[in-house]
Amino acid sequence: MTYGTKVRIHEPISLQKIADSGQCFRWTKADRGFHIPHGEKDLFIRQSDPFTLEMSCTEEEYESVWHDYFDLDTDYGEICARVSEEADPFLYEAICRQRGIRILKQSLWEMLITSIITQNRNIPAIQKSVELLSEKAGTQCESACGGSFFAFPTPAQLADMPEQDLQECRLGYRTEYVRLAAQKAASGELNLAELTALPDKECANRLISLKGIGEKVAACILLFGMHRLDAFPIDVWMKRVLENEYPNGYPKAAYSPYNGLYQQYMFAYYRERKS
DNA sequence: AGGCAGGCTTTTA
DNA sequence: TAAAAGCCTGCC
Which residues pair with A171 in a beta bridge? Predict the structure, then answer.
């Protein structure tokens, strides 16, 4: 593998922390770095220090695709600096420890399906299902390494999967949820462009009207698929955080419009600390 | 109306 | 055997 493009960025990033943060399920370890499928392109990336990214793509592709994928135009330092150590020592510590996390700009469709799949499952199991779906229904694409990889299936590809193939993706009772969402997206009944135009609350409600999507999954889709940084998913880990660290209430209003971003630091910190 | 219990596929620890 | 980035249905 050749890493032809080297970029210096202005604030620290940690690929490892992003990989562990539970927002991407197709990253795999490769060559002291990671392999990342994204649409019909893929990337091999590694870092020699917190400010240097080495990538397999051309500079042009970095500028047009990957710079945005890693959300490098958002000033995380500024957003984190709003949190006061005196007022909120727990969040402050979480941010210090998890510095380098970013909210990736992944495909909305892929995040919609992936988020449905996450319910009641652990991360290795989620990764396996997403990979199986891609292998069985996704387009085979040419990889930057010379081999090939499978893109995440489009709505039509997913909707057209033979029953047998879909069953083999180990989705359990979520199989029906995935199929229904794919059929609606393929038919146009669910229009992702229209969804994107809705304000947070309406957007979440539209998603919740789909079978298999509740409040938590809808929040994940907003945060990870639409980059709505205020969306605040409360899963079992965040429930523990809120109960144990904020017995007198969490100052959600004060942290708008970045609740989702702060949540990501707390989620990662608490999970790491307790496991 | 809104809250709660029980069930759900499969994998992992 | 229980828990896992939860949601749905039925019941009260």
Answer: none
The CA angle A71-A72-A75, to the nearest 5 degrees, is 100
Q: What positions of strand C are covered by protein, i.e. any atom < 7 Å from a CB?
A: 3-9
Q: Under 8 Å CB-to-CB from A243, ≥6 apart: which residues?
A: none
Render pLDDT for A10-55 as a digit per residue (tens, 0 to 9): 999 999 999 999 999 999 999 899 999 999 999 999 999 999 999 9
Q: Is the pLDDT of residue A196 over 80?
A: yes
Which pair of tokens denotes residue A121? 């499952």
Nearest residue to A171 via CA among A129, A111, A127: A129
A174 nearest nucleotide via C1' and CA: B9
CA of A123 to C1' of B11 (A): 10
pTM comes to: 0.97
Write out pLDDT tens, residues A134-148. Answer: 999 999 999 998 999
By the 8 A CB rule, do A15 and A34 touch? yes
